[in-house]
Amino acid sequence: MQAQIVPNGDFESWESYGSYENPEFWNTANDITSSLGVFTTQKTNDSYTGDFSALMEAKTALTFTVPGLITLGEFTIDIWTQESEITGGIPFDLRPDKINLFYKYQPVTGDSFRIGMWLLRDDGTDVPDTVATALYNGFDSFEDYNMLSLKIEYRSEDTPEILNIIAISTNPDNPIVGSVLKIDDIHFECSTNIERRLVSA
């Protein structure tokens, strides 16, 4: 087995947008909530490897609880209607076996975090066809970095075209302010007959 690199999966590269930073290649809620002085994803030097990791924490924007999250897709939220959506992803055409990462979690009582990975194929409809998924809900607190390894479950033999990875610090169905999720070193395990290469956006 060998590792397939996720773009900026070690969160060492961050881009400045004036009042806030986003990890390169990743989208967050900061793009929408920064005008309100609210930042739910931030750079931290509390890392597993390297200098930085991504810290996510749900916060209140006006009367709406905005989750701390990262995604390779596009995140949109309407503060007034409190409706949000994550769509799309980046080009990707491999069939990895597992997705691995390291995380710390300090939840508010009753809360949980969510990790999701989708491999998609554009079938010409409004909703891309799902080739494979890996999903995890975590409830336990970890003060030290803990490794999470998820087997990727394939639904078809198709070659994927799109990759999206999402990490959310709170239960998106019932978000709670205050739970803190830190993530570092997201990477794939691929079969040895697949060449290791950097995924480009």
Write the layout of secondary structure elements.
Blueprint: E1 2-5, E2 14-16, E3 21-23, H1 30-33, E4 41-44, E5 53-57, E6 59-61, E7 64-66, E8 69-71, E9 74-78, E10 83-87, E11 90-91, E12 98-106, E13 113-121, E14 129-138, E15 142-151, E16 153-154, E17 162-168, E18 180-190
Antiparallel strand pairs: 1-18, 2-3, 4-5, 5-18, 6-7, 8-17, 9-10, 11-17, 12-15, 12-18, 13-14, 13-17, 14-16
Describe the structure.
The protein has one helix and 18 strands. Strand 9 (74-78) and strand 10 (83-87) form a beta hairpin. Strands 1, 4, 5, 12, 15 and 18 form a six-stranded antiparallel β-sheet that branches. Strands 8, 11, 13, 14, 16 and 17 form a six-stranded antiparallel β-sheet that branches. The protein is an all-beta fold and 201 residues long. The model is unreliable at 194-201 (pLDDT under 50).
The coarse overall form would be: globular
What is the number of strand segments?
18
**Separation of the first and last Cα atoms:** 24 Å
Oligomer state equals single chain
| Largest β-sheet summary | 6 strands, antiparallel
Please work out how many helical segments DSSP would assign: 1
Order of helices and strands: EEEHEEEEEEEEEEEEEEE
What number is the mean pLDDT?
89
Low-confidence stretches: 194-201
Please state the structural category.
mainly beta
Strand content is: over 45%
Rg calculated over all Cα atoms: 16 Å
Helix share, percent: under 10%
